[in-house]
Amino acid sequence: MGRLVFMLWLLLGLAPLQTARALDMQDVPEPLKPWVNWVLADETQYRCPFIFDDFQQKHCAWPGALHLNLQAKHGSFVAEWTVYRQDWISLPGDTQHWPQTVTVNKQTQPVVEKDGKPALYFPAGRYQISGEFFWESLPEQLALPEASGLIQLSVNDKPVAYPPIKQGALWLNTENADTADREQDRLDLQVFRQVQDEVPLQVITRLDLEVSGKAREIEFPYALLPNFIPVALNSPLPARLDGNGRLLVQVRPGRWSIDIHARHPQALTQLDLTVKDENWPAEELWAFQAVPALRLVEIENLTAIDGSQTNLPAEWQHLPTYQLKQGESMKFKVVRRGDPEPEPNQLKLKRTLWLDFEGGGYTVSDNITGTMSRDWRLNAVPELGLGQVQLDGQSQLITQLADGNQGVEVRRGAIQLNADSRIEADLSSLSASGWQQRFQQVQAELNIPPGWRLLAVSGVDNVPNSWLNRWTLLDLFLVLIAALAVGRLWSPQWGAFALLSLTLIWHEADAPRLIWLNVLAVLALLRVLPAGSFWQWLKWYRNASWLALLMLTIPFMIAQIRIGIYPQLELPRQPIQRLHSMVSAAAPMAMQVEQMADSAMAPEPEIRELAKTESEYSAKPKMSRAYGGSAASLQRIDPDANLQTGPGLPHWGWQRVELSWNGAVDSNQQIRLWYLSPFMLMLLHFAQALLVAVLVLKMLGAIATNWRLSLPSLTCLLLLPLLMAPNQKAYADLPDAPMLEQLKTRLLQAPQCLPNCAQIADMQLLVKPEVLRIELQLHAQQDLAVPLPAQLEQWFPEQVSVDGGEAQALIRQDDGSLWLAVSPGVHKVTMQGRYTAQDKFSLPLPLPPQHAGVIADGWRVDGLYEDGKVGPQLEFSRLQPDSGPRNKLQQTALPAFVRVERTLHLGLDWRVTTRVEQLAGALSPVLLELPLLPGEAVTSPQVRVKDGKVLVNMAAGQATLEWESALAKTEQLTLQAADTPQWTEVWRADVSPIWHLQADGIAVVHHQDGQGQWLPEWRPWPGEKVNLTIGRPQAVAGSTLTIDRSELAVKPGQRSETVELILSIRSSKGGQHPVKLPELAELQSVTIDGVSQPIRQQGAAVSLPIHPGTQQIVLNWQTAKEPGVLLRTPLVDLGVTSVNSRIQLLMPQQRWLLWTFGPKFGPAVLIWGLLIVLALLAFGLGKLNITPLRHWQWFLLLIGLSQLHIAAAFLVVGWLFALGFRAHHAPQRPRWFNLAQIGLAGLTLLSLLSIAIAVEQGLLGNPDMQIAGNQSSATLLNWYQDRNGPQLAVATIVSLPLLAYRILMLAWSLWMAAALLNWLRWGWNCFTGGGLWKKSQPQVAVPKSEA
User: Where does the secretion signal sit in this chain (predicted)?
Assistant: First the structure.
């Protein structure tokens, strides 16, 4: 037995290796066949036929034909059923009309009630069921089983064709009421209409009926308004609309509501209630549903009433309601059609402007957010040169219209735009917005480079940080008081001089302010107070104030001279590159190179449009000549249309000035800016230092007449290998559970033939004047159900036979379709039946035949194509309309109500998407001939075209049909609605930003779709048209390659120079870009995006491969070169302009740096400015006779001390002044004298120590040239340039061998030693004048007098 189980496992285990298919019973191994019913116990529908294309939908009970013979007092029925599993079968009738003497296969069976219906319970098999009914009179309706196929009805021995079936019941037309009953018949009718102002105009009419008496047929002649076309009829009672718009209803007692949906084919300005009938309600209530997007109307002649106080349907009570009497009209006054003037754009602008270092213009970055609802193009003002525009992160082509305006096309309502631009017009006058738009809010940030100063701004609403706006009333008061004091103390001329000096320096950084008032106050008091002890103390305070004035003004003057020469020192602690900042300038070269590679800029969104253009062009097949278009502006590829990469944005930030406006700002708003240029600012700083020096000297009296750690999860630490569960007891004679599960899975597998398990190979139609016969050759692979070409409201067979015998398994679905269950094989199915009482109907083909043939007599059949092919339905039209008697309550098919939506997609290729949609919930068959647009060619393979028209064939139940077409390019395109009541049209234009669209004709009703995309939509009435003018704006010539950043790192050596160049490049198209290296340069390596490239130089040129997008390129080369007095960085030609150029030079250790040249924002050698100040200070000190030092001696002394801290210089100078003061003003009191001597001795020692340190520093240390600016140091020099031409800027340094510095410092040390001996001799004389030390005199005791 174990071997048997193993073989079973082997058979079922190998099954998945084969193609998956359902397991037939003959394929089941013999030991497992007894288990088939076991494993399928819960699969009750296993053997039931399935829908031919859906294995999950199955039906297990299939009825055959139901024969009903109904008489005035009794009736009988015979039904055939095929049951594939035990199930309940419903019988005709209900609890009111219960079937009697029911027999099954001629044997009496018990009938029970199930769900309110008589039912039988059967096992699988075929059954013939018969029964009888008994009643006093023929009932109005007879309930039918839910699953019923063909129904053959005879009433009083008269066959009835197309018996009315509705709501699961068979409705019988009884006309046997007597006169007495007729007198009890009552009908209360209320009429409500909802007018929907759509295109086309629609009216929903609701008839509320309250019926009493017998069931009867009633005619409602005014249910439809004149000339309206019915669309849908929803009635709980049997009802139909005839050709004249009259409604016929089979009523019975109760309350009923009937809805009729209708449309009018033309545009209306009024609706008339043309009724003059006393049997019709004298008043109707009309609710008006306006659609303002289509048109805005006013109801002129009627007065609105409160619908909530009427019987108006609750769902309509929120609408304006009007009461119309017979003969009245509802007139429409059209105020506006569509939306010709949409609301203004709601946009916000945030601008960032960078003034060029050289003052040649501004670089502008604009960020525009908000919503657009009109214009759909953003044009810049003429002075704004657009360089690059991105919309929602995607680069856009900048184009120019015929009027010269440059801008971009916008296609989304919610806009997120970033634009990089240049302004090279007048620096002092700018447009506030820069765009030909009105902005609701504008904010701007103006970045001013070093060396420039903003004096004043006008044309803004805030108070920007300019020099003029920094003045307060307190500042003015203090300056005027100080100037008046100077004028009173000396002269009005000196007062004016003080006013000028203080005005110029008052708002400078670290400028002395209140000290002036302090000194002036002391000087004034000394003039008016008499001599005395207070006067003497005040004199000491004056001296201390003078000292404080010197300590404040001397550094200020030094700073002003430095800033005048080196503007980058104005903000010494602020780096210039605040955005995308590079690595620290103080890092060693090797470390910086590594950091530069690690901190490369993140790639920006790639520019995809051009690459898309080329790929789409190469991928798509070439169109015919008629499709391509001949105009040059309409060709698929424009060689001049290159996406611009822009001027590149500066990465620096220095002085920021915030500008803002409180209200809306348009393109005419101007701002005025007043600047001081770098040259004028340099003169100003020099003047400030000079004026302060003169004012200080005047006040001193020198001028006769101032990640997170986490601990491992505890569950992770506790994870252990899973242990196998204990084996359950197995029985060798039974298959185990996995085997049975696999058997079940195999049995339930869907057949391989899905979804095409059935085909109709051939269909032949014999169309006779009164009867239609259809013969089908049906192929089936499984037991399944197939749909037959029939529909209850169109045409339904009275007889169906399969292979010569009556069909035993037919089901009629709720939608009126008919399904047949067949066994595997080829079957001949014959269907025959009479026509409904209509002259035109459609025959749906849910399973289209592969071939069809038609023989027609008296009918025209449409929908049959060449080679015997058919569409989803056939349409039958009687050649001579039948005027014979008809079943009044059998509703003929209502005209189809469809909308044709054409969406034009105007991109690189033009195409049209056409969508046909049924409206108002009606899903009746549609057969139309829809004209194509001029130049339109259908590309969808399943759509048929004949004589320039699309043959639209939609089966019943099909809601939409869609196809694609190609459209020939043209500069003028006219859309005109067909003058037909068969459909209404909707036009939309989806226009790519490469096109500019202008439309005239009817107004646009919607400008955007649900996602905010610009999608103009028109809804025309029949015959209306729209003219579209489509042009391709000329692309603006601009840069297609931008170098956003360059870094040149130079490392000079004793015999060669090593250079590294890093380039960050953006490009909109691929190709080769040449870079020219300096002469004698020897290329070492080229790296692109971190990958080494086998690129070699050709002469001085290096050709770099560029791909669309962002890339970082690193070039390394060496040049044989020895350092000299002048050391220049290499001249590199990048071939295009660039921004954000940085130069870094590593200073050789054995060189003495004297001066630097190059970009303005670079290192500064501050020692020379200090020497100028020291020379001025030495000149002033030489004027004082308190020491024997001359001007040149003071200058040499201060030069040597400049290598130390400034406190050392103050110490030595103070020591010399203290000795001179000691010689002439020695204290008289011994205590003060001795304290002065001790202080002088200590001061002498400290001064001599400072001089000794200065000598040592000069002879052994490195020169402190006070290198500052752009985070430079004595060993690492950094330059930054905001904008460059094709050639990178060149930096130059002047240097000497360090030995030269040593020799000079040796000479200074020798001079210092000789001079110091003379100064010490003079100092000793000063120190000993009046004695070295004074003893305190003993106090003499005075004898007390005796009394």
Answer: 1-22
CA-nearest of 576, 540, 299 to 447 is: 576
- pLDDT class for 300, splitting at 50, 70, 90? confident
What sections of 506-608 are H helices per DSSP? 514-528, 533-565, 589-598
What does the alpha-carbon distance between residue 698 and residue 693 come to, in Å, rounded to a whole number? Answer: 9
Q: What are the DSSP E strand ranges found in 1089-1210?
A: 1091-1093, 1101-1106, 1109-1120, 1126-1128, 1138-1146, 1151-1157, 1164-1165
Q: Which residues contact 33 (CB under 8 A, 6 or more apart)?
A: 25
Q: Please give the Cα distance from 135 to 139 (Å, whole number).
A: 8
**Cβ neighbours of residue 125 closer than 8 Å, sequence gap 6 or more:** 82, 83
Q: What is the pLDDT of residues 223-232, one digit of tens each?
A: 999 989 898 8
Q: What is the pLDDT of residues 637-656, one digit of tens each?
A: 566 678 889 999 999 988 89
Backbone angles phi and psi of 1063, in degrees to 5: -120, 130
Going by C-beta distance under 8 Å and a sequence separation of 6 or more, which residues neighbour residue 1056? 1118, 1119, 1120, 1121
Mean of all residue pLDDT scores within the chain: 83
pTM for this predicted structure? 0.71
- Single-letter residue type at 288: F
For 824-836, what is each residue's pLDDT tens digit?
A: 999 999 999 888 7
1121: which residues sit within 8 A by CB, 6+ positions away?
1052, 1055, 1056, 1057, 1080
Q: Calculate mean pLDDT across residues 1198-1209.
A: 82
Q: For residue 163, with 0-12 CB atoms within 10 Å meaning exposed, 13-18 middle and 19 or more buried, which class applies?
A: buried
Which residues lie closer than 8 Å to 159 by C-beta, 6 or more apart? 152, 153
Least confidently predicted of 90-99, 141-150, 1132-1141: 141-150
Tokens of 491: 């002269």
In Å, what is the CA distance from 421 to each residue of 366, 380, 1066, 1136? 8, 10, 16, 17
| Beta-carbon contacts of residue 620 (< 8 Å; ≥ 6 apart) | 909
For 106-120, 704-718, 778-792, which range has the lowest pLDDT when averaged over its residues?
704-718
Q: For the chain, which domains are there? A: 2-54+736-747 (no CATH), 60-163 (2.60.40.1730), 179-332 (2.60.40), 350-404+416-462 (no CATH), 472-572+678-705 (no CATH), 756-895 (2.60.40), 898-1038 (2.60.40), 1039-1163 (2.60.40), 1167-1264+1291-1330 (no CATH)
CA pair distance 148, 138, nearest whole angstrom: 22
β-partners of residue 1113 are 1063, 1088
C-alpha dihedral over 375, 378, 384, 385, to 10 degrees? -130
Whole-Å CA distances, 354 to 333, 650, 672, 751: 57, 7, 16, 72
Q: What is the pLDDT of residue 796?
A: 86
Can you state the angle between helices 2-14 and 737-747, rounded to 10 degrees? 40
C-beta separation of 161 from 192 below 8 A: no
The answer to whether the CB of 1130 falls within 8 A of the CB of 1050 is yes
pLDDT-derived band at 1010, boundaries 50, 70, 90: confident
Rounded Cα–Cα distance for residues 911 and 988 (Å): 12
pLDDT-derived band at 350, boundaries 50, 70, 90:
very high
Over its C-alpha atoms, the chain yields an Rg (Å, rounded) of 52
From CA 172, how far away is CA 995, in angstroms rounded?
Answer: 65
129/105 Cα distance (integer angstroms): 6
- Which amino acid is residue 189, in one-letter code? L
What residues have CB less than 8 Å from 426, skipping those under 6 apart? none
**Separation CA 265–CA 275 (nearest Å):** 21
